[in-house]
Design brief:
By secondary structure, the protein is mainly alpha-helical. It contains 14 helices and no strands.
């Protein structure tokens, strides 16, 4: 996925170089040299491991949305095909809208194959479990986070991007469903999406697998991936304890994101990674991408579903973004209170933007300086 995706391995290495420089363990020349060599550094995970992780995510996602083991097998094949297609179309510089359409059509191909093998398979569950990684849950949540932190234009741009890309998915799915229906394969795909009613422990394992798969696909180092998977299990358990199963479940999502926020304020210090490498992966299965998908789909219907689902998606994104930020804030305050703050460069960036911010006890320094350091001193001296 070199041409379509984000490399958290590169981000983590760059962040650690910055931390080393600020802590005085390397000078500016060494920092520049190491930054220049990042492109030459190998991937965090080999291509084979990435393929296996993609397959694992493909097997776990259908379980989350009500599929059985047969659908999970289809998910493995479809995920691998989807990632390969994304990579190739990305290399050809296809606009993301058309890549989304192609992903929607691919999902209907998998659903049609399952219907031929087993007419009782729910095609909607198959389609959703495959295109879930293409939905705008991450984009919409990040957009809301940008907006509520004052970056209004950037947030609006990302919201619009999420709407357009989700529309591409809807176009692809509906086009594919119509084509297969014309060919005699009944494919009653709808926009009714719900999480599976399976035991909590199995859902927690599925959430962990999704987090691991996503982390490896995005090249997060192992020291980041596996703590994130554990955090994802805890986050889903909190959500399950509070969820009502109605609408956006704002309080349940907010509490789950709050838990993720505390975790991603503390854990990155110990694994020396940016909090962003953990944040979204820890609650992937709770992202509001499916609600936005349902809203865009419902815009062509006459029963008023569009406004309901789009509103629910916005509320869910707001709950997740706000819960994550408040949780991170509380986590940072707690570490300050107990005087265990270390590697401050790994603190979420909006918490240390001002020198007089209440969280920057030492005049806004981002180093590991001791309490005896005076404001204005260079910690490297």
């Amino acid at each position: 996925m070199d041409s379509y995706g984000f490399d958290y391995g590169v981000l983590t290495r760059a962040t650690n170089i910055a931390a080393d420089y600020i802590q005085g363990t390397i000078n500016i020349s060494e920092a520049r040299e190491q930054l220049a060599n990042i492109a030459k550094t190998g991937k965090s995970w080999s291509k084979k491991v990435t393929i296996i992780a993609t397959a694992a995510a493909g097997a776990a996602a259908p379980l989350v949305y009500g599929g059985d083991w047969i659908v999970s097998i289809a998910g493995v094949i479809s995920y691998l095909a989807l990632v390969y297609m994304m990579q190739k179309l990305g290399e050809l510089r296809w606009p993301s809208f058309f890549i989304q359409i192609a992903a929607g059509i691919l999902a209907t191909v998998a659903a049609a194959a399952m219907r031929i093998l087993d007419p009782h398979v729910d095609p909607t569950s198959v389609v959703i479990s495959i295109i879930i990684i293409m939905m705008a849950g991450m984009a919409s949540t990040s957009a809301v986070q940008d907006t509520i932190t004052g970056h209004y234009m950037h947030g609006l741009g990302r919201i619009y991007e999420g709407l357009v890309n989700t529309a591409g998915l809807v176009v692809g799915v509906r086009l594919g469903a119509a084509l297969f229906t014309m060919l005699g394969v009944s494919l009653p795909v709808t926009n009714e999406v719900s999480l599976a009613s399976i035991p909590l422990w199995l859902m927690m394992i599925a959430a962990a697998f999704v987090a691991v798969g996503n982390g490896i696909i995005l090249q997060s180092p192992a020291r980041v991936v596996f703590p994130t998977a554990v955090l994802a299990m805890v986050v889903y358990a909190v959500y399950d304890a509070l969820a009502t199963g109605e609408g956006a479940d704002a309080w349940a999502r907010g509490a789950a994101a709050f838990t993720a926020g505390i975790g991603t304020a503390i854990l990155p210090r110990f694994v020396k990674a940016p909090s962003s490498a953990m944040a979204i992966s820890s609650f992937l299965v709770l992202l509001p991408g499916t609600l936005l998908y349902q809203g865009i789909w419902g815009s062509s219907l006459s029963d008023g579903q569009a406004l309901y689902y789009i509103s629910a998606a916005f509320i869910a994104a707001m709950s997740l973004a706000a819960g994550l930020m408040v949780g991170q804030y509380v986590g940072v305050v707690a570490m300050n209170t107990f005087k265990v703050v270390r590697n401050r460069i790994f603190t979420p960036v909006f918490f240390s933007r001002a020198s007089n911010h209440p969280l920057t006890r030492r005049g806004g320094k981002t180093s590991n300086a001791t309490e005896s350091d005076q404001p204005g001193e260079d910690p490297r001296e």
